[in-house]
Amino acid sequence: MSTRNIKRVAVLAGGPSKEREVSLVSAGAAARALGALGYDVITIDVTRDVAALVRDITVGKPDVVFNALHGRVGEDGSIQGLLDMMALPYTHSGRMASAMAMDKPMAKKIFASVGIPVAKDRVVTRAEAEKGDVLPPPYVLKPTNEGSSVGIRFVHPGDNRQPLEDLGIPADGLILVEQYIPGREVTVAVMGEKALAVTEIMTDRSFYDYEAKYASGGSTHVIPAALDKKLYDRAMELSLTAHRALGCRGVSRADLRFDGTEFYMLEVNTQPGLTPTSLVPEQALHLGISFNQLIQWMVEHAACDA
Question: What does pTM read for this prediction?
Fold first, then answer.
């Protein structure tokens, strides 16, 4: 059981973002593991009703909050700030690291400042992106602050221009336009101060999108990735450097593209998924760390910035 006298854990589930359903799955898996480990577990379904959330946490009197939220509110520093105000330790990164990682343009500036390669990009309004190519195609259109590949669109040479209203971004809202990096997609989990492994992700879809991430059979994970030791270590080093540069704590996951010569950092996920198809539990198990052990480690290393 706990070495910190942690008895009760509140698991935050759901949330108001587009990743609500995935969060419910991650939260359910975490709650079951915590129960099996002997913790007293309460699960709180998070909505935009902040007063209700504060009331539920206060009444529940948890020693630690397990943040299983994905996407906006749960992953962008909002929940973290609230829990800091309540002086409650919580899993994963703090409010500043969470906010910076979720803001893709800001995260890329931080990565570049410490020597991590990133793709060329521009930040433009949706209206500007609809007028014509702002970068030579192929390129990728991304919301500046979504996770799980939500709202991503590829533009190839000669493509018919498609309206972007369905991305859920207003005409004056910002879009990250990023050079497309051809090659292989890899991911590295970081647990505390240790990069765990390199997984190569293969999918029959056009890219590792939301369905490929979470649908059964949506992708194939090759662990360890078939890279020579120098390249393998390079991916691990870049991921740990990104984790540190953002100020992450607990568990994070870095996503990279490898063009055959160099790795390019796409993003760091401060709230990586804990679903049956998720990558972090898979990498932990590859090193002999069971799912329950992973969850307990996350609880034991919970903290706040009160």
Answer: 0.90
